[in-house]
Amino acid sequence: MSAPLKHPNTVVLQPPTVTISPLIRFGRYAALSLGVVYGFFRLRQIREYHADIREWEHEKAVAAAEEAAKKKKWLAKDEMRYLMQVVNIPFEEGVKQFGVADLYKEE
Prior knowledge:
The chain has one domain (23-104). 69% of the residues lie in helices and 0% in strands.
């Protein structure tokens, strides 16, 4: 059996290879390596800058969380006082009945 025949359209004709000057080749690789080195140093600079930004954002988020916790505790205290007023229970007795003594501890 002979090899299957190939259709003439399936044959890809490529132009002959061209030799590139060693000076041009050196220039390309030099530019590539300079770009890699520049990228390395630039990435390090950007990391330091963004580390400062992340630290600032973290401090800001922690402060916001503390403020939200204080506000939540204050609202819970206010709600309990209102509930005790509505039910007409004295404050000390209401704190014991509702089990919210930890809410009214002073820090």
